[in-house]
Amino acid sequence: MLKEERFDYILKKLQADHKVLHTELSNDLQVSEDTVRRDLEALAQNGLLIKVRGGAIPHSPNPFAFNERINIHEDDKKAIAAKALSFLHNGQTIIIDGGTSTYALVKLFPPSLQLTVVTPSIPIAMQLMEHPGVDVVLTGGRIFKSSQVTSGMDTIRMLEKLRADICFMGVCSLHTEVGVTGPHMEEAAVKNVMVQSANRIIALATSDKMGTAEPYKVCDITELDTIITDEAGLELAVPYRQLGIKVI
Amino acid sequence: MLKEERFDYILKKLQADHKVLHTELSNDLQVSEDTVRRDLEALAQNGLLIKVRGGAIPHSPNPFAFNERINIHEDDKKAIAAKALSFLHNGQTIIIDGGTSTYALVKLFPPSLQLTVVTPSIPIAMQLMEHPGVDVVLTGGRIFKSSQVTSGMDTIRMLEKLRADICFMGVCSLHTEVGVTGPHMEEAAVKNVMVQSANRIIALATSDKMGTAEPYKVCDITELDTIITDEAGLELAVPYRQLGIKVI
DNA sequence: CATAATATTGCAGGAAATTGCAAGAACATG
DNA sequence: CATGTTCTTGCAATTTCCTGCAATATTATG
Which UniProt keywords apply (chains A, B) (predicted)? Predict the structure, then answer.
């Protein structure tokens, strides 16, 4: 067994279980615990995980919000992402906004998919770099460390020149009257341009986002084409449907 | 059996199994392990696979696409990076090119450093996101999956509008007459704009890069202000010094 | 066609990396 | 603070890698 295969196995297991143990890995890989220890050491050296007593845990590239949020509502987000997949077809150009729901979506991309993705999100770009069929375009600009997206005038300028088939937007807050809103001015401005630059806007929102509002406006609620949520059958969805928005 | 047939077989097997072993190939192809080793060496040279101890693995799908290169000449690169640190001062705006030498540099940034970094490199941006004092600006554009940098017109446009104090460039090839050159047209064009946009160009180059050339020109050798290398005392450095370039 | 130049291949040796083991230090936990 | 676990360090056995070299095959050239 090649050392790289062990690395691969360790990283896969880590992603699945959110932790790995020396004892387990030693068993799974049929090598001594010392070798496992040295493997983890090497992976930690390259910043791919964090060693802890007894094993290792995933590396949060930074202790900020994005990585904290990845795991909350993980199953809901996966369910939402799975529904979103059906909108994708080869040859499309799509905008994918930052956020944990949209990140869950690109993680589910089947390897056969062929499209161009424009995104301001660094985690999404990294994820898609490993995908053989997707061309990735990263919008430029200053990086917001908390959400790991680029923002600012440069981002807006790049998006303005674009015409995309679909925009998948990760929304912070949805409200029938206030519309789509967000907590940061710059990010809201960027999202607004995304809405202008795509033929069809699909919002990904866990149900706890619905009926809430934040200071900065992204767009009117009627500009949304579809809302994908985990609980489409709920009472909550009714007012959106009355406005002509598909809720699934 | 023709060498090309062996190449063909190796690549096919690699695609099927996601790895190849010296021992297996030696058996399958009925040649010595040394010949297999040399074949893998040749294929690795052309970027068709990654040599590892015991055999080889494919290039893209494994998670070490960037890290696979980070370990070669690791100590040399660290030494180079350490020398480069002395050029940094709080308040500067600097451009940092992609590449493993420049990546080693940002890894050494002391936490007290306060500056703005503009870079097309995603690994560098990720690394610096953890840094409390550095503002990171990522240039936009299509992502080159092999080198994990953005490139193209958008990248160039963002750099053009910039005026930086220093540009740290990771060079592929340095030659006293041909100048700085690189293997890809687009990347060379981006590097060229970097050179135009910074007051001072500092090239990071392990000594094996010196005296070599590639198809696409980045800039004249005289546009460099300083070359940082691992073996500044060598004979190699003399002709550059005669051109007025500092070599350290 | 003959001969020289070049490339390819296998082999031998020493260098380097990987692995598992053992002994003692550091650590967590009750 | 006593105990069992985990970590580090050094070491030796094994495997794999690299270098130079000689034998053979291939190609170029007069």
Answer: DNA-binding, Repressor, Transcription, Transcription regulation
B128: its two tokens: 């610096």
Q: How far is B69 from chain A (nearest CA, A)?
A: 11
Mean per-residue pLDDT, B109-136: 92
Tell which of A1, A4, A59, A124 to mutate to test the B interface (max B CBs under 10 Å): A4
User: Residues 29-58 of A near strand C (Cβ < 7 Å)?
Assistant: 31-32, 34-35, 38-39, 53
C-alpha span between B206 and B85 (Å, rounded)? 16
Asked if A145 contacts A127 with a C-beta cutoff of 8 angstroms, the reply is no
Provide the β-strand partners of residue A51. Answer: A56
State which amino acid sits at residue A170: G
Task: Please tell me the distance from the alpha carbon of residue A180 to that of residue A193, in angstroms, as a whole number.
Answer: 13
B contact residues 20-79, partner A, Cβ 8 Å cutoff:
21, 52-55, 57, 60-65, 67, 70
Report all structural domains of chain A as residue ranges with CATH numbers, in order of start: 3-58 (1.10.10), 68-247 (3.40.50.1360)
Which phi and psi (to 5°) does residue B227 adopt? -115, 125
Hits for CB < 7 Å against strand C across A residues 186-215: none
Does B96 have pLDDT greater than 90?
yes
Residue A165 to residue A199: CA distance in whole angstroms: 5
User: According to the model, what pLDDT value does residue A20 have?
Assistant: 93
Q: Does B148 contact A at CB distance below 8 Å?
A: yes
Q: How far apart are CA A121 and CA A137, in angstroms?
A: 10
Question: Would you say the C-alpha torsion B231, B232, B238, B239 has a positive or negative sign?
Answer: positive
Give CA separation, A193 vs A154, A187, A190, B202, in Å: 12, 10, 5, 38
Residues A141, A187: Cα–Cα separation, whole Å: 12
- Strand order in B55-57's β-sheet? B20-21, B55-57, B50-52
**Token code pair at residue B90:** 């709080």
Q: Which amino acid is at A140?
A: G
d(CA A222, CA A147): 26
- Nearest nucleotide (C1') to alpha carbon of A53: D6
pTM for this model (two decimals): 0.78
Q: What percentage of residues in chain B have a pLDDT greater than 90?
A: 58
Residue A64, pLDDT > 70, answer no
Nucleotide of closest approach to A32 (CA, C1'): C20
